[in-house]
Amino acid sequence: MLSTQSNSRHSLFFDRSSSKFAADVSWQDQQTRQLLASGLETRAQEAYSMTIRWNMTTWLGLQQKVEVSNKSSNADAYVSRNFNIDGNENNTQLSFQPGSTYRFTLSYRYKEKETLLLKV
User: Fold this and answer.
1) CB-based contact 27:68 (threshold 8 Å)
2) Three-state DSSP class for 79?
């Protein structure tokens, strides 16, 4: 068995240490290729994400994360391993902290995935 693997992650930040506003954009790429006795198998995963944090006042803050991803697999010997998954995710958090003792957080998460089986 022979295999190669490649991973990379790149991020761009804006004012990460600020207590008022911060943002970042990230890109991830993972690739694996294996030569098995039954043939070649390739897997890939790619994701783009953006996170924004905004403290509107000293007691009210908002955080928003959006991610778009793609995961794929292709195998020569097994047709059932050939697929492509597209995903979208949205996370929103609204935090309320009236003092130093308590914090209340309202969270919302939406995740959608669509699978496409490939026949090769």
Assistant:
1) no
2) helix
